[in-house]
Write a structure and sequence with these properties.
Chain lengths: 112, 113
């Protein structure tokens, strides 16, 4: 079974600064997908960024980028120029076949 | 295009009662999922469906039942509610089971007392 570990339950960052959220996973599979989801206070789950394991290039979406280290099974999320609206709980998720496995999340607070 | 909708938004049940959580998607997605999210935790898969008439268990199926008679609807049934089922329930859908993202509904907060 796959496991996803997020070792930082809570983090904070000053507005306009950069923050990195950590995620590690365990799998014996070679083809899979990794996601970061954001859950603001509204409770809605919102996809932030996606990475295909077969791609060496790290995914980027505007201010969000990942550092994908396949050998180390690490998938961190970097948020640049943090904004107050980035305050949310961030979940790392691993997907193979039909099942999506989530980490326990990191609560990020952006401070004015 | 409403995406994934869930009803109700909130519900309080007494121990032993039953209820059905409704989920509908208008994106013609084949795959649909039910998750539960306990406080401070990630989402755990309860059941999923790969198309009308086909369902399968996820990680935490005990105490729940599902059916999928149409592409659009995927109701979750709780029989004999227990306090351990107090959670937030999310329905999601996707075009395939592989790389495509899952689209989530707004969730149902259920309290069993």
């Amino acid at each position: 079974a796959q496991t996803v570990t997020q070792s930082q339950p809570e983090m904070s960052v000053q507005e306009a600064e950069t923050v990195t959220l950590s995620c590690t996973y365990d799998t014996s599979e070679n083809n899979y997908y990794l996601f970061w989801y954001k859950q603001p206070p509204s409770r809605q789950m919102i996809l932030v960024i996606r990475q295909e394991a077969y791609k060496q290039q790290n995914a980027t979406e505007n201010r969000f980028s990942v550092n994908f280290q396949k050998a180390a099974k690490s998938f961190s999320l970097k948020i640049s120029d943090s904004q107050l609206g980035d305050t949310a709980r961030y979940f790392c998720a691993f997907k193979s076949a039909r099942q999506l496995t989530f980490g326990s999340g990191t609560q990020l607070t952006v401070l004015p | 295009n409403a995406g994934v909708t869930q009803t109700p938004k909130f519900r309080i049940l007494k121990i032993g009662q039953s209820m059905t959580l409704q989920c509908t998607q208008d994106m013609n997605h084949n795959y649909m999922y039910w998750y539960r999210q306990d406080p401070g935790m990630g989402l755990k898969l309860i059941y999923y469906s790969v198309g009308a008439g086909i369902t399968d268990k996820g990680e935490v199926p005990n105490g729940y039942n599902v059916s999928r008679s149409t592409t659009e609807d995927f109701p979750l049934r709780l029989e004999l509610a227990a306090p351990s089922q107090t959670s937030v329930y999310f329905c999601a859908s996707s075009t395939t089971g592989n790389s495509y993202e899952q689209y989530f509904g707004p969730g149902t907060r259920l309290t069993v007392t």
